[in-house]
Amino acid sequence: EDQNEEECTLVELKEVKEATNDLEEKLQRMKKECHIKCCTDSTSGSYKIIKGMRMEMEQILTNKTGLLDQNESLIDIKREIAELQEQISVMSVHILNKREENEELMQEIK
Fold first, then answer.
1. The organism sits in which domain of life (predicted)?
2. Contact, 44 vs 37, CB < 8 A?
3. Which residues fall within 8 angstroms of residue 46, CB to CB, at 6 or more apart?
4. Of 23 and 44, which is predicted with more confidence?
5. CA 74, CA 81: separation in Å to the nearest integer?
6. What integer pLDDT is reported at residue 34 of this predicted model?
């Protein structure tokens, strides 16, 4: 009789484990379905939040790209300024040399 009870208990335990596994699988399927529905149903709150987050991320990427473009422009402008400063320095030296030549010529004329 004890052995029969043990066998019944083992059978019941096995049935409970199978039922638990079935319920877990069903729950996982339902979670996936719910997630898919939330992501595709435009009336759900989750969909709206995700859409808003996507829009924010796109805006951030756009801003980042804009900043990178501005940085490249600034680098080009700085390079151009450096070249102009170099040209100004060369012209200043040239002007000083011409001034000295002119002063020497003025001295010779007097």
1. Eukaryota
2. yes
3. 38, 39
4. 23
5. 10
6. 75
